Amino acid sequence: MYCCSFADKLSADIMGSLWDDLESLVDAPSSFSAKSGERGTIKPKANFDADQDAAALKKAIEGLGTNEKIVIEILTTRSSAQRQLICKAYEKATSRTLVKDLKGDTSGDFEELLVALITPPAEYDCHEVMRAMKGAGTKDKVLIEIFASRSNQQIKALSDVYFKETKKQLTAALESEVSGDYSKALLLLALGKRDESTTVDVNKAREDAKALYNAGEKKWGTDEAKFIEILCKKSIPHLRQTLIEYKNISGKTLQQSIEGEMSGDLENLLVAVVKCVKSVPGYFAELLHESMKGGGTDESTLNRIMVSRSEIDLLDIRAEFKKLYEHSLLSAIQVRNWIFNF
To answer: Which GO terms describe its molecular function (predicted)?
Structure first.
């Protein structure tokens, strides 16, 4: 028991140092502006042949029991764009969709992972949002993760898919699912209209830092609207400078102030936004650790992050994970699989 408590405390201390450290923040690279393929672990396969891959998948699926090794080898070593070409070649060769055949021959978390791999990124994000809103109770954790971490372009792309599939606006659907200040913040992010300017005016950042301080720490009660307006609209470079100015004014980090002033889903969303402003890879490293912590693995979160970040910044997420938890992401996944398959 002592060991677990010590490990948890050490983990909390390490995470605290990550989110409290604002040194070099302004000049640090941001995943919001990263181009697909730059910091991902999956790259387009050289000498790619969609017809050949489709034939190999057909053989692997149609045999006595699915040859999972072949399926995994192909789908995890091709880029998302190449997988889409494989899907087209497969349907042309078999008159069946690859997704339907994979669903018919696999099940559970493995099926979910394979389907995620052959789904275009915007469509996958959209379907995750739809699943989060489906049924009794909204899975706010998923909505917070997606809308806090995606760029304007990614949010607009998933919104377009949502409209194409449902003939409804995503913001209207979200508005019917969530309420209060949390709804206002989430809907602002879901518009995908965050300022994208790259220049930083230190004086304006200082003004926003003062406004945030006056809206929270300095007054009785909290002006949530001011936090929402600044954190959900201003550019990432501007907000990074604002975080530095805020600590200079307050003596606390903005994350610490939000955690002390707010609660519930609004707190969780704004803290996630602040973490992503600082470091999207650090944010996802923390979520991955949480997904594998305790008595069972949150496979949906694990799959979603691994697939959605595989061509964007998974190399950086791996590096942050190793730095934070002193073991590799790969070893953490392998250990969890060994424990629960033993």
So the answer is: calcium ion binding; calcium-dependent phospholipid binding; phosphatidylserine binding; phospholipase inhibitor activity
